[in-house]
């Protein structure tokens, strides 16, 4: 799955999200790393933030993406 498509799915699925997706250090194309910044993460636990990303990716997490290294931030956290 193309990294720009993963970014689009995340940004479409999470309000005001900005996603940057790249291939992870592993050589497989289905291993990705993502940084996602959204005010929707405000007040949510890290687990809940990650679940929001997984929900945005839906079935792609089991069919197209084997592994996802994930970092999530509120805009304030990211600016620090």
From TrEMBL:
Q: What InterPro entries does the record tag this protein with? A: BolA (IPR002634), BolA-like_sf (IPR036065), BolA/IbaG_stress_morph_reg (IPR050961)
Q: Name one Pfam family in it.
A: BolA
What is the superkingdom listed in this entry's lineage? Archaea
Task: Return the similarity comment.
Answer: Belongs to the BolA/IbaG family.
Q: What is this protein called?
A: Bola protein family transcriptional regulator
């Amino acid at each position: 799955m193309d990294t720009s498509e993963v970014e689009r799915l995340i940004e479409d699925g999470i309000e005001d999200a900005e996603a940057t997706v790249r291939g992870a250090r592993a050589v497989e194309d289905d291993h990705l790393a993502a940084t996602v910044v959204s005010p929707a993460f405000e007040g949510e636990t890290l687990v809940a933030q990650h679940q929001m990303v997984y929900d945005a990716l839906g079935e792609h997490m089991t069919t197209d993406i084997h592994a996802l290294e994930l970092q999530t931030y509120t805009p304030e956290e990211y600016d620090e």
